[in-house]
Design brief:
The complex is a heterodimer of chains A (164) and B (554). In chain A, strand 2 and strand 3 form a beta hairpin. Chain A contains 4 helices and 9 strands. The longest helix of chain A has 13 residues. Chain A is an alpha+beta fold and 164 residues long. Chain B is α/β, with parallel strands linked by helices and 554 residues long. Chain B has 3 domains: 170 residues, Rossmann fold (3-Layer(aba) Sandwich); 159 residues, TPP-binding domain (Rossmann fold, 3-Layer(aba) Sandwich); 170 residues, Rossmann fold (3-Layer(aba) Sandwich), CATH 3.40.50.970. Chain B contains 22 helices and 20 strands. Chain B has a 6-stranded parallel beta sheet, with helices on both faces. A 6-stranded parallel beta sheet of chain B has the order 11-10-9-12-13-14, with helices on both faces. In chain B, strands 16-15-17-18-20-19 form a 6-stranded parallel beta sheet, sandwiched between helices. In chain B, strand 19, helix 22 and strand 20 form a beta-alpha-beta unit. Classes of the chains: A alpha+beta (164), B alpha/beta (554). Chains A and B meet through helix 1 and helix 2 of A and loops of B.
Chain lengths: 164, 554
Amino acid sequence: MNTWLLALLVNNHFGVLMRVTGLFSRRGYNIASLSVGETNDPDISRITIQTHTDGAAIHQIIKQLEKLEDVKSVALLPGAETIARELLIIKLVVPAARRGALAEALSGFDCKMPYEDENKIILEFTGSTARCGELIGVLDSYTVLELCRTGVTAMSTVHQIQSI
Amino acid sequence: MELTGAQILVKTLIEQGVDTVFGYPGGTVLGMFDALGEYGDKIKIIMPAHEQGGAHAADGYARVSGKCGVALATSGPGATNLVTGIANAYMDSVPLVAITGNVTRALMGRDTFQEVDICGVTMPVTKHNFLVQDISELANTVKEAFVIAASGRPGPVLVDIPKDVTEEYCEYIPAGGYKPREAAAPNQGSLKLAADMIAKAKRPLIYCGGGVVAANACGQLRTLAERGNIPVAASLMGLTALPSDHRLMLGMIGMHGTPASNFAGERCDLLISACSRFSDRVAGDRKRFAPNARLIHLDIDPAEFDKNVTCDLHIRGSAEVVLERLLIPENQDDGWIGDILRFKAEHPMPDGGDKRRINPRGLMRVIRRLAGEDAILVTDVGQHQMWAAQYYPFERPRSFVTSGGLGAMGFGLGAAIGAKAAAPDRPVVLVTGDGSFHMNLTELTTAVTHNLPVVIVIMNNGVLGMVRQWQSMFCGSRFVSTTLGRNADFVKICEGFGGLGFKADTMAGAEAALDKALSSGRVCVIDCTVDPDAKVFPMIPPGGSGGDIIYNEQ
């Protein structure tokens, strides 16, 4: 089992996401994370899918995706030359007495704090999946009220992904 | 010129070359039928008894004619009734355009009367589907549906049109007739490599699939096989690619394939898969299929490559072009085919059976003899289907219409009606079982009403034969729910619908009835009593490979 990152350019229509995710579920593939958004071309959306599977299956997935009429291109992003990021937002209970310690614990992370009140804070962090995991680990001793992640979005530093 | 959406739809269908629509009216397609009536001189409506029959008819029509079949149904239940037919076309790669009405746009999403999200429902069983929300896109969308259905690997496309879109007016700009997208040319280097592999092989075998028939590439296949002296084993869908009596034709391969085909599959040192997909009914054990061979896979759909069986070389392209460009040296060495023919002589297909009753195997040859080489044989699903595949002598491509991938009991009668509509001058014989026929026999009324005289041969064993066979082999002969004990009188049923009915208990009786039926010009049922314990052999148990073949009951 390996982890793969796929970048898809698709028509920006209703139902396209369902076609893509439906294909994964009915062929028995698992989506570890998925993110989607419009591109600079408003007719085209970009979907990033992270999936865990073996080498033979990933090629089958790509070929099945390429058969969908609404999918314009599918690219397998190489691990090494790819910028892959997640946005993590986390709401924590942090009493005033622990704020100093928290700031210290977070010193290695480029975190933002878009909200705070007397009981709780909200942290915003962008980084690799691994870094997001590390940050969550660092916050282990705090009470987490809510946590959300966008899933990976990614771009190759070398290849230009274009729709056909 | 301003036209309604319904008129635009019908005019666009006519531009796509459609002359027959298998359609059932209803609330949301009122406008469409109005327009179909208006252009009745150009498009014929064949109305089924149930939309499923209409979808199967459109499928049968497409298989025989090579054109896109068109099925039309109203929203909600009309649309969902099409689904089995659409799935069937999807599994067998049949070009089909399904058109459904839907509730008006303002009522969508409100659980309106007869509202179903048919695009959502059919997503997994269509190549693509469209919901037309803007009348200005209607003509192009309908044309695009035909392009997608017919291009590359064919398949079904659904176009869902809200009722108010069919009622609106819009300037009509003809979309023009469709042309399938051209497939990319096959890789020259791979072709050369494949030709070298074939030239060097001592025991090559072509495993021919339905894609060869769908692409009208049977001539090219034959040329290749004859030039290289390469025997051909076919999947169920590929059976008509070469005449059954051709010296290189080994018949069907796989679960109920011939001993010769499966022997060749086991022994070959090179297997060339021509547009087939290594389904579980052929390659039961994917790891041990053609265990001594290198494998070449030719297909127009690259997603088939390495999906089920991993091959050494893949060539993507249309069957016609790929087979034509495989330039192999002429080979006159009969050693390999001789080995196979010797094996075949030592391991004949089972024959005979209870002499007092009708022998279903022999009956296939009787049908062919009386109906002639021009006949189209349609089947349902089950034992009779396998006997047809094993024993009916096929002559021409597109003369065998059967539900291969989906295995949909109830397919046959609708499909036979579609086949007859596509080829009214050719005899159409449906071979079915009492189980399958019971599922959709209401379509007798369609055949009678539209004067589509198909001859229906029921292999009536009073049981669900294939399931019973599996129960006998794998469930300790506990025959749960397969002994039908029904009292349906198929002769009276057919007469009740306005056709002719015959009953036969002996081969001579069946032959006499067939003779009368084929010359009657009427819809006929011949109810043939067959042995409930007759089994389909040879058989490779599910998950097995050629080495696991069971030749006969003993």
